[in-house]
Inverse folding.
């Protein structure tokens, strides 16, 4: 029965990963269409802000490629070398996204300073404004779709990439504002807004890296006090301690220690542990494995005969 359950879980996880890859592939196409439009018009007009926005969108596409590769690895079932599966490769990809944003941030800063210090004046046209407005709509749709599927499939990678794409929406709004200011006679607005974009991108990168590091460093996923409350409600459990949890949002591993009546047989104590496991998996659907260490009730052992 247990082997069948594990097989079903592995198949469900592989199907979920295939769906995540399909979403990433669609987002990749959209991101590179947007990036190409921004880069072409940014370079033609010599606008630091538009070109920087295009670079940001290009990084979005690069992060999708990274995500597709990572999901290909993450979808592999558990093996002897990776008994807990390959799910953390998804978190590694999220960390890579943060690193790529950081690289892009440095380039944004260089271009912005060059624009401000050298007083470069971009050529603002109606076509450029229309292209930027179009890419803004595309980015908003992409963000909404990616966030929906990220929550549906509980994918930290899709959610991280959705945050990245959402940053593109704000960046594009800032760039449209800079184009308006340049058109009104304030040419330095191009470089100054590009600098503001750099700060915003840095904040996005920090949030993504922090989330990925939390997964990779085995940050606790469940509230220990709440887990204890559920465990102590199981008949036969006299105490619960040393609750630990780790993993990703959609696959959490838990281990804990319980104390039972020392007069119970091994089979009876094992049945109590099984009830604890079933209770926690019922309370937390994301829990894929529970390790229960059973010990005799210390207080009962210390009592005089």
């Amino acid at each position: 029965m247990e082997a069948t359950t594990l097989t079903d879980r592995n198949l469900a996880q592989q199907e979920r990963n295939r769906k995540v890859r399909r979403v990433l592939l669609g987002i990749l196409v959209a991101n590179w269409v947007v990036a190409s439009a921004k880069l072409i018009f940014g370079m033609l007009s010599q606008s630091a802000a538009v070109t920087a926005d295009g670079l940001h969108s290009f990084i979005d596409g690069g992060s999708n490629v990274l995500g597709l590769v990572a999901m290909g690895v993450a979808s592999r079932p558990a093996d002897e070398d990776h008994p807990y599966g390959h799910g953390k490769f998804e978190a590694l990809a999220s960390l890579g996204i943060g690193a790529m944003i950081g690289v892009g941030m440095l380039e944004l800063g260089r271009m912005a300073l060059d624009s401000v210090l050298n007083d470069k004046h971009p050529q603002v046209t109606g076509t450029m404004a229309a292209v930027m407005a179009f890419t803004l709509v595309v980015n908003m749709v992409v963000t909404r779709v990616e966030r929906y599927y990220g929550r549906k499939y509980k994918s930290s990678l899709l959610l991280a990439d959705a945050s990245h794409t959402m940053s593109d929406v704000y960046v594009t709004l800032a760039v449209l504002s800079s184009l308006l200011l340049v058109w009104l006679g304030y040419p330095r607005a191009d470089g100054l807004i590009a600098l503001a974009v750099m700060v915003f991108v840095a904040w996005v990168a920090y949030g993504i890296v922090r989330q990925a590091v939390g997964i990779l460093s085995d940050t606790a996923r469940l509230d220990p006090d709440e887990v204890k409350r559920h465990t102590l409600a199981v008949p036969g459990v006299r105490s619960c301690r040393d609750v630990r949890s780790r993993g990703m949002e959609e696959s959490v591993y838990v281990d804990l220690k319980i104390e039972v009546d020392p007069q119970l047989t091994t089979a009876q104590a094992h049945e109590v542990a099984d009830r604890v496991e079933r209770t926690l998996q019922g309370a937390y659907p994301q829990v894929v494995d529970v390790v229960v260490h059973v010990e005799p009730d210390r207080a009962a052992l210390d009592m005089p005969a």
Notes: The chain has two domains: 2-216, 224-302. The longest helix spans residues 2-45. The longest strand covers residues 239-248.
